[in-house]
Amino acid sequence: PDAVKVLAERIRAEIGKAYQIGGIECWVSASIGVSLFPTDGEDADLLLRRADAAMYHAKAAGRNHVSFFQRAMNDTAVERFEMVNGLREAIRSGELILDFQPQVDVATERLIAAETLVRWRHPSRGIVSPGEFITLAEDTGMIVDLGEWVLRNACEAAASWTQLPDVGVAVNISARQLEQESFLESVEGILRETGLAPGRLELELTESFAANESMIEALSRLRQAGVRTAIDDFGCGYSSLALIKRLPADTLKIDQSFVQGITNDRRDVVILESLVRIARGLDFQVIAEGVETLEQMDTLLSLGCTRLQGYLLGKPFSRESFVREVTRPDALWRLAIERPEAWAPPQEESNSS
Questions:
Q1: Strand, coil or helix: 204
Q2: What is the largest CA-CA distance in the chain?
Q3: Could you tell me which residues come within 8 angstroms of residue 88 by beta carbon, excluding any fewer than 6 positions away?
Q4: Ranges of each domain in the chain
Q5: CA 171, CA 103: separation in Å to the nearest integer?
Q6: Which end of the chain is least crowded, N or C, by CB within 10 Å?
Q7: What is the 3-state secondary structure (H, E, C) of 53-78?
Q8: What distance in Å separates the CA atoms of residue 202 and residue 100, rounded to the nearest whole number?
């Protein structure tokens, strides 16, 4: 095993060396799984399956690792296999459900959009959060089918909001979806079939994925087609300011990690103030997510960020209840703005936006 470990680490190190493409320095990393004959199996098929289980263990441990198969990984591998098959069936059978969380412009006192959040109603596990299956979908390539299902159903929902004809819908997309040559054609086809105006759809991509040339080109094509684009988790990536100014986006969403500390950590206020100033100076709309208290809301308003999302303004609602809940006279987002006498905001809870 020691000799194999040394060899695997040499392979990993060799793969990780920087190289040049068109004058640009690039690099990749590798997660390596190892199984040993005859300890871990006596036939090629079993050894490959167990090396695969070890590789996923290496990825789960932070990637760019070498991991040797251990018996305990069998349970993880079986669970993963069941989840993969279950997710594939969920996309086909209607086990996936969508919730929509309101986004509000406090300055104009308007509901402006809703972010789409996908859940999995598992037959035995109950409600499974996206954090438990989105990475799995990305690793297995199912994210393309899953993403198309979410996009289609989100557009159908927004098109049905006849009482809210100007309210948009935001949908998260993955880099793998955006890399598909047919993605723009697929988006345009869904908009045509659902009757949703392109300007009411906003596609969100995280900053870390958006900060490369191929993603920039793909986002530009979407904007040319009239679709709005947003950079999610802004401030958490590693983009240079030179690259940020070239991002073909309409909106920058400030990550909730910056919002959570602004009432008790001056450093978060300084960072947030800088992010808002940069974004507005580059003509981006700015929205802060994860707003849970009136103090956070007031601080954000004082910094010039008026577009907000979070449990203070409304939890995620089901497709069936969204319009009813956000149009009520006592909707949370209205109460947070008006602050009637004797009204108390909801208790803080973990924000899933």
A1: strand
A2: 74
A3: 142
A4: 2-71, 94-338
A5: 13
A6: N
A7: HHHHHHHHCCCCCEEECCCCHHHHHH
A8: 13
Report the mean per-residue pLDDT for the chain: 88
Q: Is the pLDDT of residue 69 over 50?
A: yes
Three-state SS string across 87-104, please?
A: HHHHHHHCCEEEEEEEEE
* 110/353: higher pLDDT: 110
148, 222, 296, 332 from 158: Cα distances, Å = 15, 19, 29, 20
Give the CATH number of domain 2-71; options: 3.40.1170.10, 3.30.70.270, 3.30.470.20, 3.40.50.970.
3.30.70.270
In which element (H, E) is residue 274 found?
helix 266-281
**Which stretch of DSSP H or E encloses residue 234?**
strand 228-234
Q: Quote the DSSP letter at residue 264.
A: T
Residue 209: pLDDT band (50, 70, 90) is low
Q: What percent of the chain is predicted at pLDDT more than 90?
A: 53
pLDDT band at 352 (very low <50, low <70, confident <90, very high): very low
Residue pLDDT, tens place only, 172-206: 999 889 888 899 999 999 999 999 999 999 999 87
Q: Do domains 2-71 and 94-338 have the same CATH topology?
A: no
**What end-to-end distance do the CA atoms of the chain give, in Å?**
45
Q: Which residues pair with 231 in a beta bridge?
A: 205, 252
The count of other CB atoms within 10 Å of the CB of residue 254 is 27
**Spatial separation of the C-alpha atoms in residues 119 and 182, rounded to whole Å:** 26
Q: Which CATH architecture has domain 94-338?
A: Alpha-Beta Barrel (3.20)
Residue 58 · residue 33 · CB < 8 Å: yes
- CB-CB neighbours of 214 under 10 Å: 10
Residue 19 and residue 27 in contact, taking contact as beta carbons nearer than 8 Å: yes
Of 69, 23, 72, 19, nearest to 46 by C-alpha is 69
Stronger pLDDT, 212 or 348, i.e. the higher one = 212
Which CA distances in Å does 140 have to 6, 65, 75, 80, 286?
29, 19, 19, 11, 33
